[in-house]
Structure formats: structure tokens, C-alpha cells
């Protein structure tokens, strides 16, 4: 019932996004997905989706699925080359992965029965949800840029004085590292989904043997964060310091739309904030920082893994925070909101699995209240926060810390305790 309800809700959202995207003259996630079965697909996690689907397959079946996907991609590549069809860079492969997932769905319906059918359909659904999530995210970003002409960057930037404008500092530090530091952080920032897939594959490694999915895993958290986050974008549109106070990036935005050309070398002056208009291209995707939320989720889900996985999760979190600030994509207060956002969602999902006990409800309600209070303070009290930096900055960090502490304390209680077996007492030898 849960999988069916989730599937219907996801389908309804995707259809709504398709309609909204077409109103602005762009193909939505449905059309994008269908065209990816034949035409050159856009870069995306198509093979990542295939990898997630393969957790329900045996090793021979996995080799067959991957081989079939690569073979179909190779054939389509040769056909396009022979027909003289030009494709953009990075759009060469992916059709095969999507076709294999669709083929497995057909096999599940026509050749499987009972639990085996359900398990294979769950695997296919997991892979397709990952791909659909990426397509839906692109549609959401388009909608934010078209429907929110005014942005709140001046309010957020003013409130960010409470933390000492960390994006300005991180931007200068990153530029000082030269191309090596920039390239490393750019790779980490761009490959966040790849890191998530690796962690998810580790968590789901026993599905093929046990013939069932674990009650909770990283993919669930990732998808819920991606589902709810864009709704906050619509309520709190922000483009980010590199666009609002800098020269823009990659030709989008630019100084002509910025409030001033200050980032990252000129300290941001404190002045009364106002709504500011921005272009209809740049996504309003800063508040909260979903990259931070996803990196926090990866960190949480690697804590029970082997040492190398725990180290990778910690590295990805630190590097993602450095990248979001250093590239000017986010303000410091975005990151605080992203941490609270991720922990609240993670707590809600785990509470749902446990049956909503008192501790879980309290944690979710508290996290939601803190998140709402952060957004209200950024919007309504930015000048007060900038004028009392020591107090307001300490309160922001304290609010985030209390949510972290509450999450750690609550989840430790939820963890099953292992009772050591008592050693048998020595018995006297018979005489």
C-alpha cells in the first residue's frame, strides 16, 4: 500500500510538472523521459537508476542487464553516426539503461508472480524514481525562474552578517587555492548523486539474497528532500551571492541583474533590504541548500558502514559545504536551514517506520518549528540580525545544534541494544 501510494503521488506530481513546464514552452519530465528511450538523452543518472534496479537481480542477471544496456547504446550510437545525427556533448549514452529498466517492468508483469513480481517492480520503480527525480528537479527549477520574478537575496545577505558573510570568505579562500582546489570541489559538488548511489548500493547489497528491501535507506531520504525542497524555493526565492552580488556564472544572470558587483572581494555593506527583480533564467534554488541537505543525508547513512565509507561520507559533507559557499551558490544561513531540513526529514522517515512514538513526534515537530523560525527570521529580522551579529549568530548556531543533538539523542534510543550472552559458570567436576 505504501509503495502504491508513493507511486501514485509521484505520478501525479510528474504530470503536474509536465503541464506546468509546457505552459512555458519547455518539455516536462514525462516528455523528457519518453524521448530518452529513442533520442539522445540528456546527461543524468540513467545508469545510476539501472544500478539501483539491479539490487533485486542475481549476479548473472545483472551482467545480462548491463551488457544489454551497453549493447543497445552502442547500436544507437552507430546508427546516429551513420545517419549523421549530431548530439550535444555528454548525450551519447543512457538510452540502453532506460530501455532495460522498462523491459524489466514488462518482464515483471508478464513473467513473474507473487513476491518475485512485487520485488522486481520495486526495483524498477526505484531506478525510474531516481531518473524521474532528476527530470522533475529540472522542471521545478524552470518553474521557479518563471514564476518568481522577485527574489529575497538582499534579506538573506543582510541576515548572513550574523555569521560573518561566510560565502565571501570562502570565495576568496577557494580562489586562493588555484585550479586544483577549484576542480576538486567542483567535482564533489557535481557528483553528489554518484556518491549517493554508491552509499545506496552498499545499503541495498543484500536485497537480492534476502528478497526484500530494508525498512529505511538513503534513496528514500534523497527523494523526499528533492520532493519537498522546491516547494520551499517557491515560498522563499533566492538566487545566491554569485548571482545577486557578483558577475554571475556560465552566462546566466550577471552584473546587470545584481544588486552590486561585490562578491567575493568587497565586504557586503549593511543596508535596508528590499525585494529585487531578477531574470527569468536563473533558478531560485538557494533556500534551503539542498546540496547541504543531501550531503548531510549521505553523512548520516554512512555512519554504520566500513571505515572507508564513513571517511568518504565525512569528506563529502565537508567538501560540499566548502563548495556551496566557495562557488557563491549559497549564503551561510542557507546551509543552516539545509542541515535542519535534512535532519527533520530523516527523523520523520524513521519515525514513520517505527510507528510515530512520542520521541519521534517531538523531534519532527521541533525540527519543523526551528526551520520555520529560521525562514521567518531571515525574512522579517535581517537588520536586527546584522546589527547584533554576536547574539544572532550564536542563536542560529545554537538552534541548528539543538536539532542535531535532538536527532542524535533520539536515534540512539531507537537503536537496538545488544545484550552480551552470559558465560556459563564453571560446574564442579564429578568425583
Element pattern in H and E: HHHHHHEHHHHHHEHHHHHH
How many β-strand stretches?
2
Low-confidence stretches: 249-253
| Overall mean pLDDT | 87
Q: Give the count of helical stretches.
A: 18
Strand order of the largest sheet: 1-2
Radius of gyration: 24 Å
Q: What is the end-to-end distance?
A: 66 Å
> Which percent bin holds the helix content?
55-70%
Largest sheet: 2 strands, antiparallel
Using the alpha-carbon principal axes, give the shape: globular
Percent of residues in beta strands? under 5%
- SS-based class: mainly alpha
How would you portray this structure in words?
This protein is an all-alpha fold. The chain has helices at 2-23, 29-35, 46-53, 59-83, 95-111, 114-147, 153-159, 166-190, 192-203, 207-210, 218-235, 241-244, 290-301, 307-326, 332-354, 358-380, 382-387, 389-414; strands at 150-151, 276-277. It has a two-stranded antiparallel ribbon. The radius of gyration is 24 Å and the shape is globular. The N and C termini lie far apart (66 Å). Mean pLDDT is 87; it is low at 249-253.
Task: Outline the secondary-structure elements.
Layout: H1 2-23, H2 29-35, H3 46-53, H4 59-83, H5 95-111, H6 114-147, E1 150-151, H7 153-159, H8 166-190, H9 192-203, H10 207-210, H11 218-235, H12 241-244, E2 276-277, H13 290-301, H14 307-326, H15 332-354, H16 358-380, H17 382-387, H18 389-414
Antiparallel strand pairs: 1-2
Helix pairs in contact: 1-6, 2-6, 3-5, 3-6, 4-5, 5-6, 6-11, 7-16, 8-14, 9-13, 11-13, 11-15, 13-14, 13-15, 15-16, 15-18, 16-18
Amino acid at each position: 500500500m505504501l509503495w502504491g501510494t508513493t507511486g501514485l503521488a509521484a505520478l501525479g506530481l510528474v504530470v503536474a510538472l509536465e503541464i506546468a513546464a509546457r505552459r512555458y514552452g519547455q518539455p516536462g519530465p514525462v516528455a523528457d523521459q519518453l524521448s530518452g528511450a529513442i533520442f539522445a538523452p540528456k546527461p543524468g543518472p540513467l545508469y545510476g537508476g539501472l544500478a539501483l534496479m539491479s539490487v533485486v537481480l542475481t549476479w548473472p542477471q545483472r551482467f545480462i542487464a548491463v551488457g544489454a544496456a551497453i549493447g543497445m547504446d552502442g547500436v544507437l550510437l552507430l546508427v546516429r553516426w551513420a545517419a549523421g545525427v549530431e548530439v550535444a556533448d555528454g548525450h551519447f549514452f543512457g538510452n540502453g539503461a532506460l530501455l532495460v529498466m522498462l523491459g524489466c517492468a514488462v518482464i515483471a508483469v508478464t513473467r513473474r508472480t507473487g513476491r518475485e513480481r512485487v520485488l522486481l517492480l520495486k526495483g524498477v520503480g526505484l531506478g525510474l524514481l531516481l531518473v524521474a527525480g532528476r527530470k522533475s528537479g529540472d522542471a521545478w527549477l524552470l518553474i521557479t525562474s518563471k514564476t518568481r520574478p522577485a527574489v529575497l537575496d538582499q534579506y538573506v545577505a543582510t541576515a548572513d552578517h550574523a555569521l560573518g558573510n561566510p560565502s565571501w570568505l570562502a570565495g576568496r579562500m577557494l580562489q586562493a587555492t588555484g585550479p586544483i582546489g577549484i576542480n576538486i570541489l567542483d567535482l564533489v559538488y557535481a557528483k553528489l548523486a554518484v556518491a549517493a548511489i554508491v552509499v545506496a548500493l552498499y545499503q541495498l547489497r543484500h536485497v537480492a539474497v534476502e528478497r526484500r528491501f530494508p525498512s529505511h535507506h538513503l534513496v528514500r531520504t534523497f527523494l523526499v528532500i528533492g520532493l519537498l525542497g522546491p516547494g520551499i524555493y517557491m515560498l522563499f526565492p533566492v538566487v545566491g551571492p554569485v548571482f545577486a552580488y557578483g558577475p554571475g556564472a556560465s552566462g546566466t544572470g550577471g552584473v546587470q541583474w545584481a544588486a552590486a558587483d561585490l562578491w567575493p572581494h568587497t565586504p557586503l555593506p549593511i543596508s535596508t533590504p528590499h525585494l529585487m527583480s531578477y531574470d527569468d533564467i536563473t533558478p531560485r534554488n538557494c533556500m534551503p541548500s539542498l546540496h547541504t541537505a543531501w550531503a548531510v543525508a549521505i553523512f548520516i547513512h554512512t555512519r554504520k558502514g566500513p571505515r572507508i565509507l564513513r571517511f568518504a561520507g565525512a569528506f563529502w559533507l565537508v567538501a560540499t559545504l566548502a563548495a556551496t559557499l566557495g562557488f557563491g551558490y549559497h549564503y551561510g544561513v542557507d546551509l543552516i536551514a539545509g542541515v535542519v531540513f535534512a535532519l527533520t526529514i530523516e527523523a520523520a522517515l524513521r519515525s514513520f517506520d517505527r510507528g510515530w512514538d512520542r520521541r519521534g513526534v517531538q523531534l519532527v515537530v521541533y525540527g519543523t518549528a526551528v526551520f520555520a523560525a529560521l525562514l521567518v527570521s531571515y525574512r522579517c529580522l535581517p537588520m536586527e540580525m546584522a546589527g547584533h551579529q554576536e547574539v544572532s549568530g550564536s542563536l542560529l548556531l545554537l538552534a541548528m545544534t539543538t536539532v542535531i543533538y535532538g536527532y542524535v539523542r533520539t536515534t540512539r534510543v531507537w537503536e537496538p541494544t545488544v545484550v552480551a550472552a552470559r558465560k556459563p559458570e564453571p560446574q564442579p567436576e564429578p568425583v
